[in-house]
Design brief:
This protein is an alpha/beta fold. It has 13 helices and 21 strands. Helix 8 runs parallel beside helix 9. The N and C termini lie far apart (60 Å). The structure holds S-adenosyl-L-homocysteine, iron/sulfur cluster and FE3-S4 cluster.
């Protein structure tokens, strides 16, 4: 058994956070000790992201810093995990001498073996993608806390033309419902209060006749005082059954991340998003009827090949119609190997930036307005701990995923559900006063005027 110390740094999406916990689980079983300090670690792993070029540039920058550690302690093993490992494979080892091993997302079981090889001075590479690997039986390493991530499926079969994920994560596959439910039970016993179910397209979850709505109902039933969240929903596959399931279960959060990407049907088609804006807007309307108080966030790309000013205006139009609670907005970044890579990246950089700034500004205005309307209303938050800025304040989240700051009080601790009245708001944060501490049993609170 190894007694070596391993330090993991995680980049990219929540699925990578969940994967790093899996990796720690695998390595701890082999005797590795987790460390929070790269300087004292025997093994340094970067779990990487390839989604846009700037994500990869960050990793190259970080490898530059790690070189110094390796110069001081040449026996340190440095490994690249995650999407960059899969995308760049042996290039990483050949071009970056500091890298000892490259292990893709479906080969983590073999990590102890690769690390052993690296300790013996040989470089290792494992980048096979699997059609079946879901790490069902691996217990992820998690410190005690309130909130946990669980990957319920891996890979993606959608092949949006801009996206590298189907190439870095492979084919779509679902984890068994039973194993997910038993993991949620364990988390509930450990005192966790919130679980986020993760997948690139959770709505196509399927296990033995159970769809994602079935998985959500089963998850919600484990512990009614536990909040269940999920991400990401693809607009093509969001079923009515799913909407009703959210509406019927008190502890399924009224919050849907529904990436639209563009407001123009022509661009959506070029992106292979497989829905029209009309379908998308209908879906939003339907969800608002079925789930009163539901909130939405989205992802948007500006400057996709051939995007005209008119296309851009259509995106602005959709944002103004939906009035998202939040949006993640990006400049198009060409990714080698994808279909869009073969299209001419013809929107000039300054136009991409200008359009991006315009939609960011619009979203900030809308978020501000939505939050102003909440002043005077009451809502229930799950308290997460001290606020980032001061230990005189506590921070929590609404069911709709908004951050609320309240004054510290002796009766209130992290993990409590508290009813608050909103008294002030910015575009990103709500501020409130405590109305009452709630019992553990969650009661679905609608924002009431
Ligand atoms: N599975 C999720 C998204 C995962 S990637 C979904 O289908 O919505 C997160 C976001 O990154 C995407 O929604 C998209 O907006 C953005 N993105 C992906 N590839 C990109 C690229 N090549 N350039 C810019 N943004 C990109
Ligand atoms: Fe990428 Fe599209 Fe799959 Fe999302 S659904 S991961 S954007 S290919
Ligand atoms: Fe990045 Fe891979 Fe996630 S490319 S966004 S880490 S699936």
């Amino acid at each position: 058994m190894s007694e070596n110390k391993v330090y993991i740094e995680t980049y990219g999406c929540q699925m990578n956070i969940a994967d790093s916990e899996l990796v720690e689980g695998i390595l701890n079983t082999e005797g590795f000790k987790s460390s929070k300090n790269p300087d004292e670690a025997d093994v340094i792993l970067l779990n990487t992201c390839s989604i846009r070029d700037n994500a990869e540039q960050r990793i190259y920058g970080r490898l530059g810093n790690l070189k110094k550690i390796k110069e001081k302690k040449p026996e340190t093993v440095i490994g690249i995990l995650g999407c960059m490992a899969e995308r760049l494979r042996k290039d990483l080892i050949e071009k970056k001498s500091v890298v000892d091993l490259v292990v893709g997302p479906d080969e983590y079981r073999r990590l102890p073996e690769f690390i052993d090889t690296a300790f013996n001075g040989e470089k290792g590479i494992g980048v096979k993608l699997s059609r079946t690997e879901t790490y069902d039986d691996i217990v992820p390493y998690r410190e005690d806390g309130l909130s946990a991530w669980i990957s319920v499926m891996r890979g993606c079969d959608k092949f949006c033309t801009f996206c590298v994920v189907p190439f870095t994560r492979g084919r779509e596959r679902s984890r068994s419902l039973d194993s997910i439910i038993s993991e949620i039970k364990t988390l509930s016993d450990r005192g966790f209060k919130e679980v986020s179910l993760l997948g690139q397209n959770v709505n196509s979850y399927s296990d033995d006749g159970n769809d994602f709505a079935d998985l959500l109902s089963a998850s919600a039933a484990v512990d009614k005082s536990m909040r269940i969240r999920f991400t990401t929903s693809h607009p093509q596959d969001l079923s009515d059954k799913l909407l009703y399931t959210i509406a019927e279960n008190e502890n399924l959060c009224n919050y849907i991340h529904l990436p639209v990407q563009s407001g123009s049907n022509r661009i959506l088609e070029l992106m292979n998003r497989t829905y029209t804006i009309e379908h998308y807007l209908n879906l939003i309307e339907k969800a608002k009827k079925i789930i009163p108080g539901v909130s939405f966030s989205t992802d948007i790309i500006t400057g996709f090949p051939t995007e005209t000013f008119e296309d851009h205006l259509m995106t602005i139009d959709v944002m103004s119609q939906v009035r998202y609670d939040g949006a993640y907005m990006f400049k198009y970044s060409p990714r080698e190997g994808t279909k869009a890579y073969k299209m001419n990246d013809d929107v000039p950089e300054e136009t991409k930036v200008k359009r991006l700034n315009e939609i960011i500004e619009l979203q900030q205005k809308v978020s501000y307005e939505i939050n102003q309307e909440l002043i005077g209303t009451e809502t229930t938050i799950l308290v997460e701990g001290f606020s980032k800025k001061s230990d005189q304040f506590l921070s929590g989240r609404t069911d709709t995923n908004k951050v609320v700051i309240i004054p510290v009080s002796e009766e209130i601790a992290a993990g409590d559900y508290v009813k608050v009245k909103i008294n002030r708001a910015t575009s990103a944060t709500l501020f409130g006063d405590v109305v009452e501490k709630k019992s553990a049993e969650l009661e679905k609170e609608k924002l009431t005027a």
